[in-house]
Design a protein that fits this description.
- Helices cover about 20% and strands about 40% of the residues.
- It has about 140 residues and is of the alpha+beta class.
- Strand 4 and strand 5 form a beta hairpin.
Length: about 140
């Protein structure tokens, strides 16, 4: 893992994630990105349900994706992620690679915010989980 990335994971593309052209459907990339973020959060020892029970919800504010190289059934995907904070936003730079040749399949910037008891705000709990975890 590169020094810049704080988390990585991999999986194989499943047939049902592909369209008639035999490539991963564009909407599936959103699932891949969220799957990676959720697995990262699970590695910190908590999950979205735990945070919700504390009155904290981490919600999507914005996403920008650039699809570069198509993925096909059986391809192994390597997902890598970086995180930083800008004011109240948590910014996830997420890169998906086709593992066989290390070609970039998707580059995404995902911005999340904390909603605490129904109000947008900063959360020390979320800061500690996302920004200070040593996985």
């Amino acid at each position: 893992m590169s020094d810049d990335y704080v988390f990585e994971m991999s999986w194989k593309v499943r047939d049902y994630e592909c369209d008639l052209q035999g490539i991963v459907n564009n909407a599936v990339y959103m699932h891949y990105l969220e799957f990676t973020r959720n697995e990262f959060l699970n590695k910190t020892g908590t999950n979205l349900a735990d945070l919700h029970a504390m009155g904290i919800d981490i919600v999507l504010a914005r996403i920008t994706m650039a699809l570069k190289t198509p993925l096909r059934p059986g391809d192994e995907v390597l997902s890598k992620m970086k995180i930083h904070k800008e004011k109240i936003k948590y910014v996830f730079d997420q890169d998906l690679f086709r593992k066989s040749d290390n070609k970039i399949a998707c580059k995404a910037t995902v911005e999340l915010v904390s909603v605490i008891n129904g109000k947008l705000g900063n959360s020390e709990v979320v800061d500690n989980l996302l920004l200070k975890s040593n996985l």
